[in-house]
Design a protein that fits this description.
Blueprint lengths: L9 H13 L4 H18 L20 H6 L1 E5 L10 E2 L2 E2 L7 H4 L4 H4 L13 H10 L4 E7 L16 H4 L6 H12 L2 E6 L24 H16 L8 E4 L7 H14 L4 E2 L11 E2 L14 E5 L17 H13 L2 E7 L9 H17 L7 E2 L8 E6 L2 E6 L7 E5 L6 E3 L5 E2 L1 E4 L2 E5 L10 E5 L1
Parallel strand pairs: 1-4, 1-10, 4-5, 5-6, 6-7, 8-9, 9-10
Antiparallel strand pairs: 2-3, 11-12, 12-13, 13-19, 14-18, 15-16, 15-19, 17-18
Length: about 450
Amino acid sequence: MPELLIDIPSTFVERIERLAAEENESLEDMAMLLLRRGYDFAVTRPEVEPDRSQRPGARSDARLDWWREARFGLFIHWGLYSVPAGVWKGRDWPGIAEWLMYRAEIPVQEYEKLAAQFNPVKFDAKAWVSLAKRAGQKYLVITSKHHDGFCLFDSAVTDYDMVDATPFKRDVLKELAEACAAQGIKLGFYYSQTQDWHHPDGDGNDWDFDPAEKDFAGYIEDYVKPHVRELLTNYGPIGIIWFDTPKGISEEQSRSLLALCNELQPDCLVCGRLGNALGDYATAGDNRIPEEVLDLDWETPATINDSWSYKINDHNWKSSVDLIRKLVDIVSKGGNYLLNVGPTGEGVIPQPNVERLEAMGRWLEVNGEAVYGTQPGPIQGRADLRTTSKEGVIYLHVFDWPADGQIRVEGVAAQGARLLAGGAALPVEVSSGALVISVPEEAPDEAATVIALR
Protein backbone atom coordinates (compact mmCIF):
# COMPACT_ATOMS: atom_id res chain seq x y z
CA MET A 1 0.00 0.00 0.00
CA PRO A 2 1.49 3.40 -0.95
CA GLU A 3 2.28 5.79 1.90
CA LEU A 4 0.78 9.27 2.13
CA LEU A 5 2.25 11.79 4.56
CA ILE A 6 -0.16 14.47 5.81
CA ASP A 7 0.85 17.39 8.01
CA ILE A 8 -1.91 17.65 10.64
CA PRO A 9 -2.05 20.48 13.23
CA SER A 10 -1.15 19.27 16.73
CA THR A 11 -4.49 20.22 18.27
CA PHE A 12 -6.31 18.14 15.66
CA VAL A 13 -4.02 15.19 16.36
CA GLU A 14 -4.91 15.51 20.04
CA ARG A 15 -8.62 15.36 19.23
CA ILE A 16 -8.10 12.24 17.07
CA GLU A 17 -6.09 10.65 19.89
CA ARG A 18 -8.89 11.31 22.39
CA LEU A 19 -11.47 9.87 20.02
CA ALA A 20 -9.29 6.81 19.36
CA ALA A 21 -8.97 6.19 23.11
CA GLU A 22 -12.73 6.53 23.59
CA GLU A 23 -13.40 4.02 20.79
CA ASN A 24 -10.53 1.71 21.83
CA GLU A 25 -8.89 2.10 18.40
CA SER A 26 -5.32 2.79 17.38
CA LEU A 27 -4.47 6.30 16.21
CA GLU A 28 -3.77 4.99 12.68
CA ASP A 29 -7.09 3.12 12.46
CA MET A 30 -9.06 6.08 13.76
CA ALA A 31 -7.36 8.43 11.30
CA MET A 32 -8.18 6.04 8.43
CA LEU A 33 -11.80 5.74 9.59
CA LEU A 34 -12.22 9.50 9.71
CA LEU A 35 -10.60 9.88 6.31
CA ARG A 36 -12.99 7.32 4.81
CA ARG A 37 -15.99 8.98 6.41
CA GLY A 38 -14.86 12.36 5.16
CA TYR A 39 -14.42 11.00 1.65
CA ASP A 40 -17.85 9.34 1.70
CA PHE A 41 -19.43 12.56 2.94
CA ALA A 42 -17.71 14.63 0.24
CA VAL A 43 -18.69 12.42 -2.70
CA THR A 44 -22.29 11.83 -1.59
CA ARG A 45 -23.22 15.42 -0.74
CA PRO A 46 -25.96 16.74 -3.04
CA GLU A 47 -25.19 19.82 -5.13
CA VAL A 48 -27.73 21.72 -3.03
CA GLU A 49 -27.81 20.53 0.57
CA PRO A 50 -31.27 20.53 2.19
CA ASP A 51 -30.38 23.07 4.89
CA ARG A 52 -29.18 25.50 2.20
CA SER A 53 -32.31 25.25 0.10
CA GLN A 54 -35.11 27.70 -0.64
CA ARG A 55 -37.79 28.53 1.89
CA PRO A 56 -41.41 27.53 1.11
CA GLY A 57 -43.21 30.14 -0.96
CA ALA A 58 -40.09 31.89 -2.25
CA ARG A 59 -40.38 30.27 -5.70
CA SER A 60 -43.21 32.70 -6.51
CA ASP A 61 -41.78 35.69 -4.60
CA ALA A 62 -41.61 38.70 -6.94
CA ARG A 63 -38.76 40.19 -4.87
CA LEU A 64 -36.48 37.71 -6.67
CA ASP A 65 -37.45 38.89 -10.15
CA TRP A 66 -34.39 41.15 -10.59
CA TRP A 67 -32.13 38.31 -9.44
CA ARG A 68 -33.78 35.83 -11.82
CA GLU A 69 -33.24 38.32 -14.63
CA ALA A 70 -29.58 38.92 -13.68
CA ARG A 71 -28.21 35.36 -13.95
CA PHE A 72 -24.57 36.45 -13.50
CA GLY A 73 -22.86 38.14 -10.55
CA LEU A 74 -19.41 38.99 -9.22
CA PHE A 75 -18.17 37.57 -5.92
CA ILE A 76 -15.22 39.29 -4.18
CA HIS A 77 -13.20 37.67 -1.39
CA TRP A 78 -10.99 40.30 0.21
CA GLY A 79 -9.66 40.80 3.71
CA LEU A 80 -6.63 40.41 5.98
CA TYR A 81 -5.93 37.00 4.42
CA SER A 82 -5.14 38.83 1.17
CA VAL A 83 -1.91 40.09 2.76
CA PRO A 84 -0.15 36.74 3.45
CA ALA A 85 -1.82 35.33 0.31
CA GLY A 86 -1.57 31.71 1.45
CA VAL A 87 1.95 31.91 2.90
CA TRP A 88 2.64 31.88 6.63
CA LYS A 89 6.11 32.02 8.18
CA GLY A 90 7.69 31.03 4.89
CA ARG A 91 5.41 28.08 4.25
CA ASP A 92 2.98 27.89 1.35
CA TRP A 93 -0.07 26.41 3.06
CA PRO A 94 -2.31 24.08 1.04
CA GLY A 95 -5.93 24.89 0.41
CA ILE A 96 -7.86 28.10 -0.08
CA ALA A 97 -6.05 31.18 1.18
CA GLU A 98 -8.89 32.76 3.18
CA TRP A 99 -8.77 29.71 5.47
CA LEU A 100 -5.10 30.30 6.33
CA MET A 101 -5.82 31.29 9.95
CA TYR A 102 -7.76 28.08 10.49
CA ARG A 103 -5.46 25.71 8.65
CA ALA A 104 -2.30 27.06 10.28
CA GLU A 105 -4.09 27.55 13.63
CA ILE A 106 -2.71 31.06 13.87
CA PRO A 107 -3.36 32.56 17.31
CA VAL A 108 -5.68 35.57 17.33
CA GLN A 109 -2.99 37.86 18.71
CA GLU A 110 -0.65 36.94 15.85
CA TYR A 111 -3.24 37.12 13.11
CA GLU A 112 -4.48 40.51 14.30
CA LYS A 113 -1.10 42.01 13.40
CA LEU A 114 -1.94 41.62 9.71
CA ALA A 115 -4.27 44.60 10.07
CA ALA A 116 -1.29 46.92 10.41
CA GLN A 117 -0.03 45.61 7.04
CA PHE A 118 -3.35 45.91 5.21
CA ASN A 119 -2.99 49.17 3.30
CA PRO A 120 -4.63 48.69 -0.12
CA VAL A 121 -3.53 51.97 -1.66
CA LYS A 122 -4.47 50.77 -5.18
CA PHE A 123 -8.09 50.03 -4.25
CA ASP A 124 -10.49 51.69 -6.68
CA ALA A 125 -14.15 50.96 -6.09
CA LYS A 126 -15.19 52.49 -9.40
CA ALA A 127 -12.75 50.27 -11.31
CA TRP A 128 -13.95 47.12 -9.54
CA VAL A 129 -17.58 47.86 -10.34
CA SER A 130 -16.67 48.84 -13.90
CA LEU A 131 -15.05 45.43 -14.36
CA ALA A 132 -18.26 43.71 -13.25
CA LYS A 133 -20.22 45.83 -15.69
CA ARG A 134 -17.85 45.02 -18.58
CA ALA A 135 -18.15 41.33 -17.68
CA GLY A 136 -21.93 41.48 -18.03
CA GLN A 137 -22.45 40.85 -14.33
CA LYS A 138 -25.53 42.45 -12.81
CA TYR A 139 -24.78 42.19 -9.10
CA LEU A 140 -21.75 42.18 -6.81
CA VAL A 141 -21.26 40.44 -3.47
CA ILE A 142 -18.24 41.22 -1.26
CA THR A 143 -17.00 39.69 1.99
CA SER A 144 -17.97 42.23 4.65
CA LYS A 145 -16.76 39.74 7.28
CA HIS A 146 -15.29 36.35 6.49
CA HIS A 147 -14.54 33.53 8.94
CA ASP A 148 -11.39 35.28 10.21
CA GLY A 149 -13.69 37.87 11.80
CA PHE A 150 -12.17 40.99 10.27
CA CYS A 151 -14.71 43.58 9.07
CA LEU A 152 -14.24 45.54 5.85
CA PHE A 153 -16.76 48.12 7.09
CA ASP A 154 -16.66 50.77 9.80
CA SER A 155 -18.35 49.13 12.78
CA ALA A 156 -19.36 50.52 16.14
CA VAL A 157 -19.54 46.95 17.44
CA THR A 158 -15.81 46.24 17.12
CA ASP A 159 -12.54 48.04 16.36
CA TYR A 160 -11.38 45.01 14.38
CA ASP A 161 -12.32 46.69 11.13
CA MET A 162 -10.94 48.49 8.09
CA VAL A 163 -11.33 51.99 9.50
CA ASP A 164 -10.09 51.45 13.05
CA ALA A 165 -7.42 48.74 12.69
CA THR A 166 -5.65 49.43 9.38
CA PRO A 167 -3.52 52.30 8.09
CA PHE A 168 -5.96 52.63 5.16
CA LYS A 169 -8.73 53.96 7.43
CA ARG A 170 -11.36 54.05 4.69
CA ASP A 171 -14.74 52.35 4.64
CA VAL A 172 -14.37 50.38 1.41
CA LEU A 173 -17.96 49.14 1.54
CA LYS A 174 -19.26 52.69 1.51
CA GLU A 175 -17.11 53.44 -1.55
CA LEU A 176 -18.36 50.28 -3.27
CA ALA A 177 -21.96 51.14 -2.41
CA GLU A 178 -21.55 54.54 -4.07
CA ALA A 179 -19.86 53.03 -7.14
CA CYS A 180 -22.52 50.34 -7.53
CA ALA A 181 -25.32 52.88 -7.27
CA ALA A 182 -23.63 55.09 -9.88
CA GLN A 183 -23.08 52.24 -12.34
CA GLY A 184 -26.37 50.38 -11.89
CA ILE A 185 -25.01 47.25 -10.20
CA LYS A 186 -26.88 45.64 -7.31
CA LEU A 187 -24.72 45.35 -4.17
CA GLY A 188 -24.68 42.41 -1.78
CA PHE A 189 -22.77 41.70 1.41
CA TYR A 190 -21.31 38.32 2.33
CA TYR A 191 -21.33 37.93 6.12
CA SER A 192 -20.06 34.91 8.06
CA GLN A 193 -22.74 34.49 10.72
CA THR A 194 -21.58 31.23 12.28
CA GLN A 195 -17.83 30.88 11.93
CA ASP A 196 -15.73 33.64 13.48
CA TRP A 197 -12.22 32.63 14.47
CA HIS A 198 -11.49 35.99 16.10
CA HIS A 199 -14.49 36.21 18.41
CA PRO A 200 -14.28 33.98 21.52
CA ASP A 201 -17.91 32.89 21.13
CA GLY A 202 -17.91 32.40 17.35
CA ASP A 203 -17.63 28.95 15.82
CA GLY A 204 -14.40 27.41 14.61
CA ASN A 205 -11.45 28.57 16.73
CA ASP A 206 -10.67 25.81 19.23
CA TRP A 207 -6.94 26.53 19.47
CA ASP A 208 -7.49 29.84 21.31
CA PHE A 209 -10.91 29.28 22.84
CA ASP A 210 -12.52 26.33 24.65
CA PRO A 211 -15.62 25.24 22.67
CA ALA A 212 -17.31 24.18 25.91
CA GLU A 213 -17.21 27.77 27.16
CA LYS A 214 -18.56 29.47 24.04
CA ASP A 215 -21.80 31.45 24.24
CA PHE A 216 -22.89 31.09 20.62
CA ALA A 217 -26.40 32.40 21.30
CA GLY A 218 -24.92 35.53 22.83
CA TYR A 219 -22.60 35.90 19.86
CA ILE A 220 -25.59 35.86 17.48
CA GLU A 221 -27.60 38.33 19.54
CA ASP A 222 -24.91 40.75 20.66
CA TYR A 223 -22.44 40.65 17.75
CA VAL A 224 -23.92 39.24 14.54
CA LYS A 225 -27.26 41.04 14.69
CA PRO A 226 -25.74 44.46 15.43
CA HIS A 227 -23.40 43.92 12.47
CA VAL A 228 -26.30 43.01 10.18
CA ARG A 229 -28.14 46.09 11.39
CA GLU A 230 -25.15 48.25 10.45
CA LEU A 231 -24.82 46.64 7.02
CA LEU A 232 -28.50 47.14 6.24
CA THR A 233 -28.68 50.66 7.64
CA ASN A 234 -25.50 52.47 6.63
CA TYR A 235 -24.97 51.57 2.96
CA GLY A 236 -28.20 52.32 1.14
CA PRO A 237 -30.32 49.68 -0.65
CA ILE A 238 -28.69 46.25 -0.44
CA GLY A 239 -29.69 43.49 -2.86
CA ILE A 240 -28.42 40.43 -0.97
CA ILE A 241 -27.14 39.36 2.43
CA TRP A 242 -25.00 36.33 1.65
CA PHE A 243 -24.62 34.29 4.84
CA ASP A 244 -22.31 31.25 4.90
CA THR A 245 -21.51 27.88 6.56
CA PRO A 246 -24.63 27.55 8.71
CA LYS A 247 -23.26 24.70 10.81
CA GLY A 248 -24.71 24.60 14.29
CA ILE A 249 -27.10 27.49 13.85
CA SER A 250 -30.60 26.68 15.11
CA GLU A 251 -33.78 27.17 13.12
CA GLU A 252 -34.85 29.82 15.61
CA GLN A 253 -31.59 31.72 15.10
CA SER A 254 -31.88 31.49 11.32
CA ARG A 255 -35.47 32.73 11.48
CA SER A 256 -34.52 35.64 13.70
CA LEU A 257 -31.77 36.72 11.28
CA LEU A 258 -34.19 36.47 8.36
CA ALA A 259 -36.75 38.54 10.28
CA LEU A 260 -34.12 41.19 11.04
CA CYS A 261 -33.13 41.46 7.38
CA ASN A 262 -36.78 41.68 6.33
CA GLU A 263 -37.44 44.36 8.94
CA LEU A 264 -34.49 46.54 7.95
CA GLN A 265 -34.71 46.13 4.16
CA PRO A 266 -37.79 44.19 3.01
CA ASP A 267 -36.50 43.92 -0.57
CA CYS A 268 -33.09 42.53 0.42
CA LEU A 269 -32.69 38.85 -0.48
CA VAL A 270 -31.11 36.35 1.92
CA CYS A 271 -29.21 33.43 0.41
CA GLY A 272 -29.70 29.78 1.30
CA ARG A 273 -26.63 29.62 3.54
CA LEU A 274 -28.67 31.35 6.20
CA GLY A 275 -29.37 27.73 7.08
CA ASN A 276 -32.36 25.57 7.96
CA ALA A 277 -33.82 25.85 4.42
CA LEU A 278 -34.94 29.43 5.03
CA GLY A 279 -33.14 31.32 2.27
CA ASP A 280 -34.94 33.30 -0.40
CA TYR A 281 -32.99 31.20 -2.90
CA ALA A 282 -30.97 28.00 -2.64
CA THR A 283 -27.19 27.96 -2.66
CA ALA A 284 -25.29 25.10 -4.29
CA GLY A 285 -21.98 23.87 -2.95
CA ASP A 286 -18.86 25.74 -3.96
CA ASN A 287 -18.15 25.15 -7.66
CA ARG A 288 -20.97 22.58 -7.76
CA ILE A 289 -23.32 22.43 -10.75
CA PRO A 290 -26.42 20.20 -10.61
CA GLU A 291 -26.75 17.50 -13.24
CA GLU A 292 -30.30 18.51 -14.13
CA VAL A 293 -32.90 21.25 -13.84
CA LEU A 294 -33.93 22.02 -10.26
CA ASP A 295 -37.39 23.29 -9.33
CA LEU A 296 -35.75 25.97 -7.22
CA ASP A 297 -34.22 29.39 -7.56
CA TRP A 298 -30.56 28.55 -7.01
CA GLU A 299 -27.04 29.90 -7.39
CA THR A 300 -23.58 28.38 -7.81
CA PRO A 301 -20.71 30.33 -6.21
CA ALA A 302 -17.49 29.54 -8.08
CA THR A 303 -13.83 30.39 -8.45
CA ILE A 304 -11.80 31.35 -11.51
CA ASN A 305 -8.70 29.59 -10.14
CA ASP A 306 -8.69 27.40 -6.99
CA SER A 307 -8.59 29.82 -4.07
CA TRP A 308 -11.34 32.33 -3.33
CA SER A 309 -9.09 34.99 -1.86
CA TYR A 310 -5.81 36.00 -3.46
CA LYS A 311 -3.19 33.27 -3.24
CA ILE A 312 0.19 34.19 -4.61
CA ASN A 313 1.06 30.68 -5.82
CA ASP A 314 -2.32 29.73 -7.26
CA HIS A 315 -2.08 29.99 -11.04
CA ASN A 316 -4.61 27.29 -11.94
CA TRP A 317 -6.79 29.60 -14.01
CA LYS A 318 -9.84 28.22 -15.78
CA SER A 319 -10.06 29.27 -19.43
CA SER A 320 -12.63 31.79 -20.60
CA VAL A 321 -14.15 29.05 -22.77
CA ASP A 322 -14.61 26.86 -19.70
CA LEU A 323 -16.12 29.72 -17.71
CA ILE A 324 -18.55 30.70 -20.48
CA ARG A 325 -19.69 27.10 -20.78
CA LYS A 326 -20.17 26.87 -17.03
CA LEU A 327 -22.31 30.01 -17.15
CA VAL A 328 -24.40 28.52 -19.95
CA ASP A 329 -24.69 25.16 -18.18
CA ILE A 330 -25.90 26.79 -14.96
CA VAL A 331 -28.38 29.14 -16.63
CA SER A 332 -29.75 26.28 -18.79
CA LYS A 333 -30.73 24.54 -15.56
CA GLY A 334 -32.34 27.62 -14.00
CA GLY A 335 -29.44 28.83 -11.87
CA ASN A 336 -27.33 31.93 -11.34
CA TYR A 337 -23.52 32.04 -11.57
CA LEU A 338 -21.69 34.01 -8.86
CA LEU A 339 -18.12 34.09 -10.13
CA ASN A 340 -15.33 35.11 -7.77
CA VAL A 341 -12.20 37.25 -7.87
CA GLY A 342 -9.63 37.68 -5.09
CA PRO A 343 -7.93 41.09 -5.07
CA THR A 344 -4.40 41.45 -3.71
CA GLY A 345 -3.54 43.07 -0.41
CA GLU A 346 -2.88 46.27 -2.38
CA GLY A 347 -6.40 46.24 -3.80
CA VAL A 348 -5.62 45.03 -7.32
CA ILE A 349 -7.74 42.40 -9.08
CA PRO A 350 -5.20 40.06 -10.75
CA GLN A 351 -4.94 40.44 -14.51
CA PRO A 352 -5.89 36.81 -15.30
CA ASN A 353 -9.23 37.48 -13.58
CA VAL A 354 -9.72 40.68 -15.56
CA GLU A 355 -8.92 39.01 -18.89
CA ARG A 356 -11.38 36.17 -18.33
CA LEU A 357 -14.19 38.37 -17.09
CA GLU A 358 -13.77 40.73 -20.03
CA ALA A 359 -13.87 37.77 -22.42
CA MET A 360 -17.13 36.66 -20.82
CA GLY A 361 -18.46 40.18 -21.21
CA ARG A 362 -17.64 40.20 -24.92
CA TRP A 363 -19.49 36.90 -25.35
CA LEU A 364 -22.50 38.27 -23.45
CA GLU A 365 -22.58 41.42 -25.60
CA VAL A 366 -23.42 39.14 -28.51
CA ASN A 367 -25.37 36.40 -26.74
CA GLY A 368 -26.84 38.06 -23.64
CA GLU A 369 -30.44 37.71 -24.82
CA ALA A 370 -29.98 33.93 -24.49
CA VAL A 371 -28.87 34.30 -20.84
CA TYR A 372 -30.51 37.22 -19.04
CA GLY A 373 -34.05 36.55 -17.86
CA THR A 374 -34.18 33.11 -19.46
CA GLN A 375 -35.63 29.85 -18.23
CA PRO A 376 -34.34 26.30 -18.81
CA GLY A 377 -34.92 25.19 -22.39
CA PRO A 378 -36.81 22.06 -23.45
CA ILE A 379 -33.73 20.04 -24.42
CA GLN A 380 -31.76 18.77 -21.44
CA GLY A 381 -29.10 16.13 -20.93
CA ARG A 382 -27.14 16.55 -24.16
CA ALA A 383 -23.37 16.89 -23.92
CA ASP A 384 -22.97 18.85 -27.14
CA LEU A 385 -25.36 21.70 -26.37
CA ARG A 386 -27.54 23.41 -23.79
CA THR A 387 -30.87 25.22 -24.19
CA THR A 388 -32.51 28.25 -22.62
CA SER A 389 -35.84 29.90 -23.46
CA LYS A 390 -37.54 33.28 -23.23
CA GLU A 391 -40.70 34.80 -24.69
CA GLY A 392 -41.35 31.95 -27.11
CA VAL A 393 -37.76 31.72 -28.33
CA ILE A 394 -35.59 28.64 -27.73
CA TYR A 395 -31.85 29.24 -27.68
CA LEU A 396 -29.43 26.48 -28.58
CA HIS A 397 -26.00 27.01 -27.04
CA VAL A 398 -23.82 24.74 -29.15
CA PHE A 399 -20.56 23.55 -27.57
CA ASP A 400 -19.53 20.91 -30.12
CA TRP A 401 -19.91 22.13 -33.70
CA PRO A 402 -21.15 19.37 -36.05
CA ALA A 403 -18.68 18.11 -38.64
CA ASP A 404 -21.50 17.39 -41.13
CA GLY A 405 -22.93 20.91 -40.95
CA GLN A 406 -26.24 19.87 -39.40
CA ILE A 407 -27.65 20.12 -35.88
CA ARG A 408 -30.50 17.76 -35.10
CA VAL A 409 -32.87 18.37 -32.20
CA GLU A 410 -35.97 16.43 -31.26
CA GLY A 411 -39.11 17.58 -29.51
CA VAL A 412 -38.78 21.14 -30.81
CA ALA A 413 -40.83 22.90 -33.49
CA ALA A 414 -39.58 26.08 -35.16
CA GLN A 415 -40.29 28.05 -38.30
CA GLY A 416 -36.88 29.64 -38.46
CA ALA A 417 -33.41 29.85 -36.96
CA ARG A 418 -30.79 32.58 -36.74
CA LEU A 419 -27.30 32.98 -35.35
CA LEU A 420 -27.03 35.54 -32.58
CA ALA A 421 -23.49 36.24 -33.77
CA GLY A 422 -24.14 38.30 -36.90
CA GLY A 423 -27.86 37.55 -37.16
CA ALA A 424 -27.68 35.31 -40.24
CA ALA A 425 -30.73 33.15 -40.93
CA LEU A 426 -30.15 29.39 -41.03
CA PRO A 427 -32.12 26.85 -43.11
CA VAL A 428 -34.34 24.49 -41.11
CA GLU A 429 -36.27 21.38 -42.09
CA VAL A 430 -37.98 18.45 -40.42
CA SER A 431 -36.48 15.04 -41.10
CA SER A 432 -37.41 11.75 -39.42
CA GLY A 433 -39.21 13.61 -36.64
CA ALA A 434 -36.26 15.87 -35.83
CA LEU A 435 -35.66 19.53 -36.53
CA VAL A 436 -32.53 19.81 -38.69
CA ILE A 437 -30.64 23.10 -38.79
CA SER A 438 -28.00 23.63 -41.46
CA VAL A 439 -25.04 25.58 -40.08
CA PRO A 440 -21.80 27.09 -41.42
CA GLU A 441 -18.73 24.91 -41.71
CA GLU A 442 -16.90 26.79 -38.96
CA ALA A 443 -18.34 27.59 -35.52
CA PRO A 444 -18.72 31.37 -35.09
CA ASP A 445 -17.70 31.07 -31.44
CA GLU A 446 -15.29 28.62 -29.82
CA ALA A 447 -16.97 28.75 -26.43
CA ALA A 448 -20.65 28.49 -27.38
CA THR A 449 -22.43 29.47 -30.58
CA VAL A 450 -26.03 30.48 -29.94
CA ILE A 451 -28.86 29.78 -32.39
CA ALA A 452 -32.30 31.27 -31.77
CA LEU A 453 -35.28 29.13 -32.78
CA ARG A 454 -38.70 30.71 -33.22
